[in-house]
Here is the input.
Amino acid sequence: MGAVTQLDRAAVAARYGMTDLDSVTTAVRRGSLPKPDGYVGRSPWWWSSTLDEWQRPGRTGRPRKVTEKETKP
Here is the structure.
């Protein structure tokens, strides 16, 4: 496992391909990202390990659509 680093909203947004910082805040409110590990003033931050553990298999987004081909024997 690599070094654990502290990530701010900008780093989290970059990590997940979000275009603005408000997207990170919205994702936390919706439960799509874990709650911050702490705050510096009013700015949230996360440990990289917190995000690594959160992003485990099966939690990567919407379920895949099953096509008609896949359901026929």
Remarks:
- The chain has a mean pLDDT of 82.
